[in-house]
Specification:
The protein has 229 residues and is α/β, with parallel strands linked by helices. It has a single domain, classed as Beta-carbonic Anhydrase, Chain A (3-Layer(aba) Sandwich), CATH 3.40.1050. Helices cover 45% and strands 15% of the residues.
């Protein structure tokens, strides 16, 4: 027998899911399939295949709404319809999510491309899309950093910039004012499974389980509602 193709591996994965996961929670899946979805959070993540949002937040079907794109971008409001803004609008207006999260991650290829534009010289669509991170690229110049720190800092500044873009969306801005909506910035460490959360006070990313920020009960909080921080 020849080497199994990648597509066959995916099909085997589906069969495994059907037998080992779905069968054990069939009633739950039937229930979520027959009732309207009520996710509490929209997570705007990178398209990077190493970032499994549902897995890292321990979220089951129906818990979170997710959209992914190159560099976890949020185009600022311009009045021109777009895929990302349509997802945000639907999540806020139709699903009434209470939280919007922009989730960046370590070793982000999009941010590497911002640091080394020649890598995408032959990819005009990608280059145009990455202009949504121009603010982060310019802010990076204000940091006193070594070469090794450039990528981690840019990843963080990009998350902050996308949070600012979120505030330009009229529906988001209105709900932020009323307190019906909160926005959050995260950076996920792929290798260590660590999560840093943006604290606007000191304008810094703080480890999720930092007791000075979250208190001694953070473990219990994550167990009951892991995507809220």
């Amino acid at each position: 027998m020849g080497k199994q193709s990648t597509l066959e591996k995916l099909k085997d994965g589906i069969r495994k899911f059907q037998i080992e996961v779905h069968a054990k929670k069939a009633e739950h899946y039937e229930r979520v399939a027959s009732t309207p979805q009520t996710p509490h959070t929209l997570i705007i993540a990178c398209a990077d295949s190493r970032v499994d949002v549902e897995a890292i937040t321990s979220s089951g079907p129906g818990a979170i709404f997710v959209t992914r794109n190159v560099g976890n971008m949020v185009p600022p409001y311009s009045g021109t319809p777009g895929g990302v803004t349509a997802v945000i609008e639907y999540a806020v207006a139709a699903l009434n999510v209470k939280h919007l999260v922009v989730c960046g991650h370590s070793d982000c290829g999009a941010m590497k491309a911002l640091l080394h534009p020649h890598q995408i010289a032959d990819k005009p669509s990608v280059a145009a899309w990455l202009k949504h991170a121009d603010t982060a690229r310019h802010v990076l110049r204000c940091h006193d950093h070594g070469e090794a720190d450039a990528l981690p800092l840019l990843i963080e500044e990009n998350v902050v910039a996308q949070l600012d873009h979120l505030r330009t969306l009229p529906m988001v801005a209105a709900r932020l004012i009323t307190g019906a909506l909160q926005i959050h910035g995260w950076v996920y460490d792929i290798a260590q499974a660590g999560l840093h959360v943006f604290d606007p006070g000191p304008r810094a990313f703080v480890p999720l389980d930092d007791p000075a920020k979250y208190g001694p009960s953070v473990g219990a909080a994550r167990a009951t509602d892991p995507v809220i921080a």
